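Example for tutorial group B:
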């Protein structure tokens, strides 16, 4: 695969994520991603019994309530969960990691 093809594929992935964020959270620009707070929801895989991310709860600070984003819907759009999380973290979204902080923000 050439560099041009890799760049084109990455831009398609980015555009898909931007469209998904706009549809689900109303995020209209990449600069608005900085105001997104999110946390993963885990479940057990019924086959391997390992902990896996099944959903992501996200919201735009002071704008929207938390919205549940199903990982299956994210992946159905053609984007992997890793690509999605990398994109939003790269653009400034904040992951809520401490349970105490989670209760304060909700």
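The residue assignment follows.
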């Amino acid at each position: 695969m050439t560099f041009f093809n890799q760049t084109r594929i990455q831009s398609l992935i980015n555009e898909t994520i931007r469209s998904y964020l706009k549809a689900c959270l109303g995020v209209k620009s990449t600069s608005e991603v900085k105001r997104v707070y999110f946390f993963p929801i885990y479940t057990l895989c019924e086959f391997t019994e390992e902990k896996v991310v099944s959903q992501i709860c996200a919201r735009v600070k002071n704008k929207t309530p938390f919205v549940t984003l199903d990982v299956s819907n994210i992946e159905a759009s053609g984007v992997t969960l890793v690509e999605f999380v990398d994109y939003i973290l790269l653009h400034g979204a904040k992951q809520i990691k401490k349970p105490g902080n989670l209760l304060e923000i909700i």
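The helical segments are 3-25, 71-76, 81-90, 99-105. Compare this with the pattern of hydrophobic and polar residues in the output above.
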